[in-house]
């Protein structure tokens, strides 16, 4: 099922969209609604939708404001608006479609089908990436160089436990040399360590899957590593992380 969230400041529009989806889109389940930017962000964090039907002009801001506040959004967006002048800007946000009110049911069905296909493709790529990460754990004899103002460290990847973001710097926790501060961003390390058994579990943490000790379920979820460091799991990563752990145990 395609988990869908409707964000619009007009109650009758939300009701109309919900009814159209129920009538014409059997693969869709509406998991929640919101009436503005602030409530929309809250609903997204709560429901983790696959698809958002998003108004543009709302009382407390625009749909673009909402998307800017969630830069790493993994859901797909269909804009539903009474204004046609925002179409170009909408597609700059990689919108699946841009529908004008009143919504044409056939156009809505077509847009939702395309969104569903994109979500399926994304999930498939995620699963392929997870499988690649699991295989990569077995090949962590690769070396990495960490340069600080005082030292140059040559370490095995298996000795890296986690990387923690500190703005334009990164703290690298190791089994052999303690905690090392390096002048590279976490994004750079994520790209560098891609395919070697490291996983971005949170916007501030990149972990070595080989150093997971346990998963704690409270408050959204935490990963405890072999150095006893407790790492929060981003809400949108929880299900993926649990599936990955299941596969690691196979």
Q: Can you offer a commentary on this structure?
A:
The mean pLDDT is 88. The chain folds into two domains: 2-134, Rossmann fold; 140-248, LytTr DNA-binding domain (OB fold (Dihydrolipoamide Acetyltransferase, E2P)), CATH 2.40.50.1020. The protein is built from seven helices and 17 strands. The strands form five sheets. A five-stranded parallel beta sheet has the order 2-1-3-6-7, with helices on both faces. A five-stranded antiparallel beta sheet has the order 12-11-10-14-13, with helices on one face. The chain has a three-stranded antiparallel beta sheet with strand order 15-16-17, with no helix packed on it. It starts with a strand and ends with a helix. With 250 residues, the chain is an alpha/beta fold. The chain has helices spanning 11-24, 37-47, 63-68, 87-92, 105-136, 186-192, 238-248, and strands at 2-7, 28-34, 51-54, 57-58, 61-62, 76-81, 97-100, 143-147, 152-156, 160-166, 169-174, 179-182, 198-202, 205-208, 212-216, 222-225, 230-232.
